[in-house]
Amino acid sequence: MCVLYVAFALTPSSYSLAYEYLGLAPQHPLLGSARMIRSDEWIVFTPYIQIAVNNDFGQINAYSPYHESLRTFQALPLLDWGLLFKPYHWAFFVLPAANAYSFFFMFMAMAFLSGWALFLRQLRMPVLAAVLVSATLFFAPFVQVWWTSNAGAFALAPWAAAAWLRIGNRWLRIAASAYALAAWVIAVSYPPFIISSLLAMAVLVLAFRRDALTLPRLIDAGIAGAMALAAFVGYFHDIIPIVRNTVYPGQRQSAGGGVGLTSLFAHVFPNLMTYRFAPLPIFKASNECEIAVLGSLLPLFTLVLADGARLREWAHGHRGSVLTLAAGVLLIACWIFLPVPVLVGKLTGLSMVPPARALLALGLLINIGCAMILVRCGVRLERRRLLLLASLLMMGTVAKFLFGEGQFSRLHSAADALPYLCLAALAIAARRPKLSVHAASLVLATAALANLLGNGLFNPVQPAGPIFAMDRAAVLEALQAQGARKNADGVLVAPGAYGGLLPGLGIPAVNHVLYLPQMGYFGRYFPGMPDNEFNFTFNRYHHVAVATDGDAPRVLQGDQVVVPATVLLAPPSLPADGTLQ
Question: What phi and psi, each to the nearest 5 degrees, are found at residue 297?
Answer without folding.
Answer: -85, 0
